[in-house]
Amino acid sequence: TPETEIRKGLAGVVADTTAISKVNPETNSLMYRGYPVQELAEKCTFEEVAYLLWHGELPTGEQLEAFQNFERSQRHLDAGTRRVIDELPLSAHPMDVVRTAVSVIGAVDETLTDSASMIDADLNMQRSLTLMAKLPAIVAYDQRRRRDLELVEPRDDLSYSANFLHMTFGEVPDLVVVSAFDVSMILYAEHSFNASTFTARVITSTLSDLYSAVTGAIGALKGPLHGGANEAVMHVLEEVGTADRAEAWLETALAEKRKIMGFGHRVYKNGDSRVPTMKAALETLVAKFDRPDMMELYDALEMAMTSRKNIKPNLDYPSGPAYNLIGFDTDMFTPLFVASRVTGWTAHIMEQAAANALIRPLAAYSGVEERHIS
Ligand code: SDX
């Protein structure tokens, strides 16, 4: 093969087509199946957006009812999965708990009988919806066991987000909170060939099963350069402490060559299209919980990063403080990203399986020349 240019990190490499979403850095826009994500966040619920990602169209009233009925029937955390979670020490990171729980759900899926069943489109659609329905129970239970609180059973009379918050906090919070949370789920749902989604596609391309692909994607999302950034953002904000200390903190951090979590993006170079919508949701929470100090700190660090490095926030920057105000433990933030992104991951898994080609790039060898044992 010709010595072609190495594209480290596959930066700028177009690896395949996708019809699921379009990220456009020129216009700083993101569309899910053709709809601008800002419109979806304003006019739809996360259930409708999940349906759109999987089926390509927004659901009719009838389709949404059937979809919700099935999703609500699958919300229960079964005893087997719960037993495995209980075996994991509280020192285990919640991302490792979520990853393990998905593995268990896959391991006990009796429809996974042979290779054909691993890529069966109807079975994968059902598995996708089941994972979407069960992840809130896993995340909510993990937060509660860390606080020595009892499991709260799901309710089938609540929307996805209201039920998620009810299982976590034992009550249905104010509509402002439910709405801000639902907006975050919509904004986190899908983002083309990001590292965790591409991981899921690589695993799917070998004709492995959906749960293996989602488990791999969770592993990729955990890293602070990707989904782990929303947890890391909260630690940064707590480290800075107050708005007046932002500039000095940043000077020191940059002098130490630190990556400032929640800023920058591989594709968006003039700011992440989702940030204005998530920042507006954060502002509703700041008003609701009367925390102007959080907004001042947020704005001060953003301004310092813009003036010092001209690097703009990504979605993780407003999401971190929003989840903090809602009441989630900081190390539960990336599992929340998993609960949302499982819809995008599974849409890509099904797309990859439908028109598959084994993903296997080349490497330019840089080791020692051929030699022989004397
Ligand atoms: C997500 O891909 C997706 O779509 C991901 C995501 C999704 O929806 O799936 O959008 C979700 O993961 C958002 C990103 C969350 N990660 C973080 O917030 C971590 C902090 N960000 C950086 O690590 C970085 O911006 C990346 C990893 C996000 C992108 O890095 P790139 O494209 O590889 O760019 P780079 O690291 O080569 O940076 C270019 C320059 C460098 O300076 P030089 O070494 O050339 O002097 O910009 C600097 C970097 O040092 N830089 C930063 C910075 N981001 C870039 N410097 C300080 N802090 C930062 N955050």
UniProtKB/TrEMBL annotation:
Catalytic activity, reaction form: oxaloacetate + acetyl-CoA + H2O = citrate + CoA + H(+)
Gene3D superfamilies attached to this UniProt entry: Citrate Synthase, domain 1 (1.10.580.10), Cytochrome P450-Terp, domain 2 (1.10.230.10)
Record Pfam families: Citrate_synt
Assigned keywords, A-Z: Transferase, Tricarboxylic acid cycle
Active site residues of this protein: 265, 316
A GO CC annotation given for this chain: cytosol
Biological-process GO terms, alphabetical: carbohydrate metabolic process; tricarboxylic acid cycle
Pathway: Carbohydrate metabolism; tricarboxylic acid cycle; isocitrate from oxaloacetate: step 1/2
GO molecular function (one): citrate synthase activity
SUPFAM superfamilies for the chain: Citrate synthase
UniProt family annotation: Belongs to the citrate synthase family.
The protein's name in its UniProt record: Citrate synthase
Organism: Rhodoglobus vestalii
